[in-house]
Design brief:
Elements lengths: L1 H4 L10 E5 L11 H17 L3 E5 L16 E4 L6 H4 L5 E6 L3 H10 L2 E6 L9 H10 L1 E4 L4 H14 L12 H4 L3
Parallel strand pairs: 1-2, 1-4, 2-3, 4-5, 5-6
Length: 179
């Protein structure tokens, strides 16, 4: 039973921010050093706000790739299940990715604040309809132009207004159905 396996953040006073990695290193589109820098930066930002970072690795990624990172974070690297199936069992307030379709799904289905990092790989996403959905449901953060500070500011302001208990009753039925 998948639900019984996932209890990521036990402390109800400390919530998590989900980060979905992409297999850019495996695809030889980014160096390992650059990937680790981006993820470590996300850990630092999320920790500075008093949250845990929950890193869900892509199923194709090397399971030990992130073992050198430091900070308050957890790695979910043994779940091949899509993030949409595990989000309801996690104590999270927002999610960050680099163009994962889960960012759109999480915003529409669960009402989570979703951030898409505009990194070196973002402009390679040439799927026009996908980009339209990203712009409609997600906040795009350009990491080249003071993006780390903007992400921290956006997380701070958005998370202040959120309720302390995320639960499935917050699902918006109109978002589950295709409009």
């Amino acid at each position: 039973n998948l639900s019984s396996k996932i209890k990521v953040t036990q402390d109800t006073k400390k919530f998590g921010i989900l980060f979905l990695s992409q297999p850019f290193v495996l695809l030889k589109r980014r160096s390992l050093e650059n990937q680790l820098f981006i993820v470590q930066s996300m850990i630092n930002i999320v920790n500075s706000l008093g949250f845990n970072l929950i890193l869900k690795t892509h199923p194709k990624e090397n399971k030990n790739m992130y073992s050198t990172l430091i900070g308050d974070f957890k790695i979910l690297n043994n779940f091949a299940e899509p993030a949409e199936l595990i989000i309801p069992n996690m104590n999270i307030r927002a999610m960050i990715s680099e163009g994962s379709s889960t960012s759109i799904n999480a915003a529409r289905t669960f009402g989570l604040k979703s951030f898409i990092l505009k990194t070196d790989m973002f402009d390679k996403l040439e799927i026009t309809q996908f980009n339209k959905l990203i712009n409609k449901y997600c906040t795009v953060i350009d990491l080249d132009n003071d993006g780390y500070e903007r992400l921290k500011k956006e997380l701070t302001s958005d998370l202040k207004g959120m309720s302390l208990n995320f639960n499935m009753t917050k699902w918006r039925t109109e978002n589950v159905l295709f409009q």
